[in-house]
Amino acid sequence: MTAFFQNVVNALQWGSFYALIALGYSMVYGVLLLFNFAHGDIFMVGAYIGFFVATGLTALLAAGTGLITLPMWAILILSILITMFLTSFLGMAVERIGYRPLRNAPRASAAITGLMIGIILETGILAIFGAQRLKFPDLMAEIDALAQPNIAGVIISWKKVMIVGVAIGLMILLQLFVSKTKWGMAMRAMAYDFAAVPLMGVPLNRIASLTFALGSALAAAAAVLYSVAYPVLDPYMGITVGWKAFVAAILGGRGSIKGAAIAGFMLGFIEIFSATLFPSTYRDLIAYSIILAILVFRPHGLFGEAHTSKLRL
Amino acid sequence: MSENSIRHPKNLRKLKKMLHRLTSHFGDVPAMGWLLAGLVIALLERFAGSSLAYILGLSKLPALFGSLVFFAKPSLHFPFIFNDLATIAAVIVYDLLIYVIPMLVVTKFTIGIANRISAALFNRSSLLSILVHLLLLYLVLWQWTDVSTYRGLVTRLTMIAVLITLSLNIINGYMGEFSASHPGFIAVGAYAASIFTIAMFTDSTLFGAAKLPASLAPFFFPVALILGGAAAALSALIVAIPSFRTRGDYLAIISLAFMFIVKSFFENLEFAGGPRGLGGQPNLASLPVIFIWMILGIWIINNFVRSTFGKALNSVRDDELAADAMTVNTRQTKMTAFLFGAFWAGVAGGLLAHVLRYINPGSFGLQKLAEVLAMVYFGGLNSVLGSIVGAVSMNLLGEALRPLELYKWIVIPVILILVMIYRPTGLIAFREFDIANIVKPKTHKEGDDAAS
Questions:
Q1: What is A2-297's CATH topology?
Q2: Which residues contact B206 (CB under 8 A, 6 or more apart)?
Q3: Which of A65, A146, B75, B185 has the most CB atoms within 10 Å of its CB?
Q4: Is B209 on the interface with A (CB under 8 A)?
Q5: ipTM reported for the complex, 2 dp
Q6: Cβ neighbours of A309 in B, within 8 Å
């Protein structure tokens, strides 16, 4: 039984990454009706930006060096925030350069452009840092040394608590932003009826940039959390994690934030439990087969509206 | 004349005039003329190429029109990425002497005789004309690639890429679905054909002794390829059947999931090597074999898309409800398109396996998907000619930029993004391919050449 709960905790952690990245895909798809295939690589670049931010902050602010000293958890929070801020610029740049010229082009062309931008990002990082993998600084050292919570025999490391907590916190913040603020209302309006939005005096390009910025910021948060959990960075990490999150986003339903989050956690559960119950090499096979089955029977995803095709008269 | 002298300085005008004089006859050169020029070039290079290279100071014959030499040795001084000026000059002289000048000379002086031969053949029977042209094309390719194994490999891989691009164009271009499943089809075809040939004709550790003598292998190779194609077509049912209910974005996801499933399936298939891959295919995919399959593929696919079935594909793409109302059987159309496209992808996969003589599941993932999609969207959707152009240019570009190593993967995506921005459906999209028009003789009476 403890093994089961241990796996639940693992699945929650694993699912948080998928959920955060899937939110970025889902928002962009809901607002702009476009698959941002470069999102996984924005996640990867976010991890590298986070590496520099964390290393820099640790050098400047850790105990014993620099002007002020901050405890490690403060540095962690600060690095997450700064990385989110910096990566949002990358997302806005990608939108400006790659997707804005193609706003009226067939969507397949935008998808290809996204793929190519992803390749450019990967190659760029590979060219700058080489094939040698980087090690993310250990920001959780102090906290890990504290006693770990032990609930009914299940040991939960503080790392997992922090990751799941931060992820859920960010998701709640996003939900509040989208539902309570004017910008969020503009985003929902764009998702509802794209053509009417500029007629109502809402700046289309700014909302598009905002959507990309938010999505990239969430991906950057996921990147820092992922690097804390698995501190090895390599230029192709965006492919493995990002594409699965993409599938989770679609599973959750078109443009549905709640759906993306739930589907992300669901995918985490499916993967962890299929690795537990079956030989772990079958993990991808089983996960994707389940997703395929779900999509065959519920094509618009779990929480998406059914897409009715209208007669154009 | 005075306007021209304001806009173009004198030297530029002279240059333009000279260029015009050299190339003005191009409009009158029939396909036969180009092929004859190509044959002369290939033979010239075969017999005099290495000596010429040696005289010019190059260490060996430039393999790919000198582009490899051009980009080698990136340097931080001017002219930055290029080689030293002496090598560049040598390569340019080589190209001029072996390629440009013979092409200009032969095309100019054989216009008359080429047109006469073309007309004689075409009037006899268009089929005879096409066959003669194909034979000439094969001769040119054969002689050109005989000089180096590298060229042979590049040409064979390019021909396979043409087949893959054509098969993908059926689904992505003619039927308008964004299908990411093609690497999966190629993988299934590659593995099926490989398992057949390895098990039957070689002594292998995985499958035991050869069941039939190895000398029979070339005769059974078509069987292996068709088996690969059929296996791929069968696997396409996984994508085709959901396509009845979903379209557009959700079908894209289903096809993506299919690709990952196939990759993971082969990674777990221990009896075919698993993640270590499957090697040791017999050396059956030679230049003539691949050439014949490519021509067969082009012919059959071109006929398919020009038939009423091809029009049905277009109608399903443009407006599925209207097509249904016009008695088009949309389910059968979708099924046939997927299975037909997957069949040719499987055949191409089988050929690929036997050229490389080693396949592993990792090579059929997202990288392959990006390459394949790049070829189709670069060349042009809904167009046989576009597919051929896209496959050849992307492949040659990929090979020519190889000395740039890592930066190749920045140049090629940038080119593709530019094409997507300025021509979103590709370079040569929505054009029909009429073979008869190509092999016709070019006579003045026709007026301007009536392009298809």
A1: ABC transporter involved in vitamin B12 uptake, BtuC (1.10.3470)
A2: B198, B271, B272, B273, B278
A3: B185
A4: no
A5: 0.85
A6: 247, 320-321
